[in-house]
Amino acid sequence: MSVQDKTPQMSRRGVLRAAGLAGAAAAAGGQALAQAKINPAKLEPGKPDPTITDIQDWNRFLGPGVEAAPYGKPSRFEKETIRRNVAWLTAGTESSINFTPIHELDGIITPNGVCFERHHGGVAEVDPAQHRLMIHGLVDKPLVFTMDDLKRFPGRINRPYFLECAANGGMEWKGAQLNGVQFTHGMIHNVWYTGIPLKTLLNEAGVKPNGKWVLVEGADSAAMTRSIPIEKALDDCLVTWAMNGEALRAEQGYPLRIVVPGWEGNMWVKWLRRIEIGDQPWAQREETSKYTDLLADGRARRHTWVMDAKSVVTNPSPQKPLKHKGPNVLSGLAWSGRGAITRVDVSIDGGKNWQTARIDGPALPLCLTRFYVDFDWNGQELMVQSRAMDSTGYVQPTKDALRKVRGLNSIYHNNGIQTWLVRANGETENVEIS
Ligand SMILES: Nc1nc2c(c(=O)[nH]1)N[C@H]1C(S)=C(S)[C@@H](COP(=O)(O)O)O[C@H]1N2
Ligand SMILES: [Mo]
Questions:
Q1: What is the pLDDT of residue 291?
Q2: Thinking of the domain 310-431, which architecture would CATH place it in?
Q3: Cα of 257 to ligand 2 centre, how many Å?
Q4: CA distances, 117 to each of 18, 40, 252, 296 (Å)
Q5: How many Cβ atoms are within 10 Å of 64's Cβ, its own excluded?
Q6: Which atom of ligand 1 is found nearest the CA of 116?
Q7: Tens-digit pLDDT profile for residues 362-402
């Protein structure tokens, strides 16, 4: 190290010492932190803390200018906040899934770059100038829209909604399997959408009286296609081109996607190119052999569109073990496809005792809701659970209660209560107790 490099460090230490401030500052800091009950580990009086007394490079040198990142990225120290996949789940990455890092996020909005992806034929790279939305079938006036047409259509609105794949937690149906909340619950994202109510476009086309079903089709190589009942289409579905204030990401269906609030993610067709009105459902692959639930007696539940109330503790969880005794903040997410979350209870003893969590931020219908429990950890083993309640009075069931009704064959629609075992050393594991 050159003398030049060393000078600022020396001089700051020198000044602190000369003024007798180093110990005082540490003592004052120690006191404030002691009041907050957080262990003042590094602030023992008389022992200087180099993270305070040393001058760091970022404090000494000019940083990059405003032109360095025309489109900004997260801090390079946040490299763990990434989507991850589970390689053995699928044969390749084109028809596959990755998972939102919900253990690294807070609040209720999922940043665009980490929204989980589920594609059946890879990401379509659609040129918006070449993209059209067609509306045809049982309508008075078939219509074709360009992206420009849609963006100048009157009646644009903004809404935040969660999207959950019906297979979220599917691997956990028969027992605890994947060790991380990202993998057990990360087939979910929650963003603000901008678009036109589907109802507005259907009114423009004029749905005939026998028009009872809506087919939505994607422009990707999988041409994902689903049937939606007309009641839902006219209620709250949106034709969207923006998420969290900017254009949809290619992974989320750029330039156009249908939003089907509260209903299973598979129906939210991406790269939306065609809407057909018919008088009955089409019985597409995704609503027959997939996204149906085989019961114990051999019959299958179908048209199980709504996502029931669910919650999970995101911290602590296997990827985010407890690190400190004393005060800790337990945090999690709750959601319901039937309405708003009204209450979340948390247990640390495997469901014997429950306490009501603190919901912070808005608890909007069909939207992720954030909850917290501020608690003291003395190093005892914990069995952490959460259970959500929604505005219909529904209470999230245990996995056992679900299996009693649905049998063992199911994959989709697992909204059972999750258990995390926190060991005495803080390590946290996916377990099942009920
Ligand atoms: N066109 C098209 N739309 C699609 C899919 C697809 O493969 N192609 N996958 C569906 C499934 S199964 C889910 S869960 C959601 C995933 O949305 P996301 O990629 O934004 O997370 O999109 C749905 N829409
Ligand atoms: Mo899905």
A1: 93
A2: Sandwich (2.60)
A3: 15
A4: 58, 42, 7, 31
A5: 7
A6: 21
A7: 999 999 999 999 999 999 999 999 999 999 999 999 999 99
What does the domain layout of the chain look like in residue ranges?
A: 3-60, 84-301, 310-431
Angle between helices 21-35 and 3-18 (to 10 degrees): 70
Say yes or no to pLDDT of 289 above 60: yes
Statement: the pTM of the whole predicted model exceeds 0.85: yes
Q: Which atom of ligand 1 is nearest to the CA of 119?
A: 7
Residue range 152-200, pLDDT digits in tens: 999 999 999 999 999 999 999 999 999 999 999 999 999 999 999 999 9
Residue with the smallest CA separation from ligand 1 atom 16 is 118
Confidence of residue 45 (pLDDT cuts 50, 70, 90): confident
User: If you measure from the C-alpha of residue 265 to the centroid of ligand 2, how many angstroms do you get, rounded to a whole number?
Assistant: 5
Identify the CATH homologous superfamily for domain 84-301.
Oxidoreductase, molybdopterin-binding domain (3.90.420.10)
For a pLDDT cut of 70, what percent of the chain falls above it?
90
Ligand 1 atom, smallest distance to 272 CA: 1
Probe target for ligand 1 pocket from 182, 259, 266, 284, with the most ligand atoms within 8 Å of CB: 266
Q: Ligand 1 pocket test: which of 90, 94, 120 has the largest number of ligand atoms within 8 Å of its C-beta?
A: 120
Three-state DSSP string of 189-238:
EEEEEEEEEHHHHHHHHCECCCCCEEEEEECCCCCCEEEEEHHHHHHCCE
Q: Which residues pair with 44 in a beta bridge?
A: none
Give distance in angstroms: CA of 268 to centre of ligand 1: 6
Q: Tokens in use for 412?
A: 């989709």
Q: Residue 120 has which token pair? A: 């059946």
- Centroid of ligand 1 to alpha carbon of 98 (angstroms): 11
Q: Is the pLDDT of residue 2 over 70?
A: no
Ligand 1 proximal residues by C-beta, below 6 Å: 115-120, 163, 165, 189, 218, 220, 222, 224, 251-252, 265-266, 268-271
Q: Say how many Å lie between the CA of residue 123 and the centre of ligand 1.
A: 10
